[in-house]
Each structure stands twice: as C-alpha cells, then as structure tokens.
Design goal:
CATH topology: Purple Acid Phosphatase, chain A, domain 2
Strand content: 15-25%
Number of domains: 1
Helix content: 25-40%
Order of helices and strands: HEEHEHEHEEEHHHHEEEEE
Shape: globular
CATH superfamily: Metallo-dependent phosphatases
Largest sheet: 6 strands, mixed
C-alpha cells in the first residue's frame, strides 16, 4: 500500500480573488459534544477573525457519521450554525480528514462552506501554496493507509451511511473510545514521508506545503529552499491548552495562538 500511496494525487486549483488579504488555515480541531471548551474557543475565533477566507484542512470533527446526524438541536447542527454565521463574513473551505471523510454536500450547503480537494494549490502573495490534510503523506503508517483506501471507496461509504443513525452513533462511540485508549498508551501518528512531500510539492510547483494530521506542529526545510508547515491540533482541555491558526498575509505566514 505504501508504494501505491507514493503516487501523487491530482492537484486541484483554488483561485484567490483580489480581495483576499488575510487567509487563515487550521486543522485537527476534533470537535465533539464532550469538549465544550474547544467548541467555545472555535466559536469565539469564528466571530472575531479578520480573515477573508478560512481553510479548514480536515479533522474539524472528532468523527463524522453522516450529514443526517445534524438533526435539530444536535451538536452537529450547532457546528453548522457557527460555520454558517462565519460564512456570511468570510469564505469557508472544508477539506476531508481521516476522522471526518464522510462530510458531504448537505452539511456543506447547510453551513455555507465549499469543499476543498486534497491536495489543493493556491497562488497567493507571490508564492505557490499547497494544502493537504496530510494523512496520505504518512507512508510508514501502512495499516492506516489500507484502512484509508477501504473507507474512501464509494461502496464502503454507501454501505455505512445506509445503516441506521443510532447504529452509526454507537460505532462512532466505540471508535472514539479506542482512539482515547491509544492516546493514553502513548501512540503517535507517523510523520509525513520526506520523499512524498518533495514529490507532491514538485508536481504542484509549490514553494510551501501546509498540512495537519500528525499533531506535530513545526516548520521544516524542504530541498530547493522550499518549506513544509505542520499545523497544530486544538485541545483546550490539555495542559497547556492548544488552539492555533496559521495566518497568511502579504507579509508572510504567522502562527496565531488562540489559547
């Protein structure tokens, strides 16, 4: 699977209107109903950001079991509401992550957001940026890549979404419990493969790659003077709390701590 995953996927293009002066990028918020602190921090950020556009690079949600989960009064519908309010002030783009790959057109339409392909290139402020969730770059995580290939298949998704909502919620609770157990055991994500990073950037013609997924925020040098920026995850209950966006302006890219 790692050999197959080394193939560079098609690179989508995002055109920046002249009015874009501030672009915020975030990922791995892992929003869920039992973490009010992170939800409240995200809601406050959405109400106060000066950004003209917000790029959310996947795992906005801890788990997404289908757009029909956003029933009136649900946590998912509250998330749609704050995103819908934000989309009235700035453009909002959502990319699939490894936790919320089932986000569909109904939810996007409800919150006024636009789907962002993975990866997507953007020419902005004289540079060529490439945006990805980052999971497909982690070639050493062979088990996950096999799982990813399975669940991204249309037949698997159709079969899963055909299950009753209550059954999907129960499955999601089980998956979340397993995830929390792995965290307590010290399990970590694999890092992005350096060769895959270089290939993706070369195919895209990108100066800078921005991604999340690994929960290892850092800036990395790539050959040829190129740069890889890894986003932070969000967790307002951690010590110290984490919440960060990457803010891109004509002056460059700056990490903005919100916690």
């Amino acid at each position: 699977m790692a050999v197959l995953s080394s193939t560079v996927p098609p690179v989508a293009e995002l055109a920046a209107p002249p009015a874009w002066r501030t672009v915020d990028v975030a990922s791995d918020l892992h929003l869920h109903a039992d973490d009010a602190e992170t939800f409240d921090a995200f809601a406050h950020y959405l109400r106060s950001t000066p950004a003209d556009v917000l790029l959310l690079l996947g795992d906005v949600f801890e788990v997404w079991i289908g757009d029909d989960a956003a029933t009136p009064g649900s946590f998912e519908s509250r998330c749609a509401e704050i995103l819908r309010e934000a989309s009235g002030r700035c453009a909002v783009y959502l990319q699939h992550g490894n936790r919320d790959f089932l986000l569909g057109p109904a939810f996007l339409a409800d919150c006024g957001a636009t789907a962002l392909a993975d990866p997507t290139a953007l020419d902005l402020f004289g540079r060529r940026w490439l945006f990805s969730h980052g999971d497909a770059l982690c070639l050493d995580d062979a088990d996950y890549l096999r799982f990813r290939a399975e669940v991204r298949a249309p037949a698997w998704q159709q079969a899963f979404l055909a299950r009753p909502l209550a059954e999907r919620r129960a499955l999601a609770r089980g998956m979340r419990s397993e995830s929390e157990a792995r965290k307590r055991a010290g399990a970590d994500y694999a890092d992005a493969d350096a060769g895959a990073v270089a290939r993706w950037m070369t195919v895209a013609g990108a100066d800078t790659l921005v991604h999340g997924h690994t929960h290892r925020p850092a800036d990395h040098a790539v050959d040829g003077g190129r740069r890889r920026i890894v986003l932070s995850d969000w967790d307002l209950r951690a010590e110290p709390p984490r919440a960060e966006v990457l803010r891109i302006t004509a002056a460059g890219a700056t990490r903005v701590a919100l916690a």
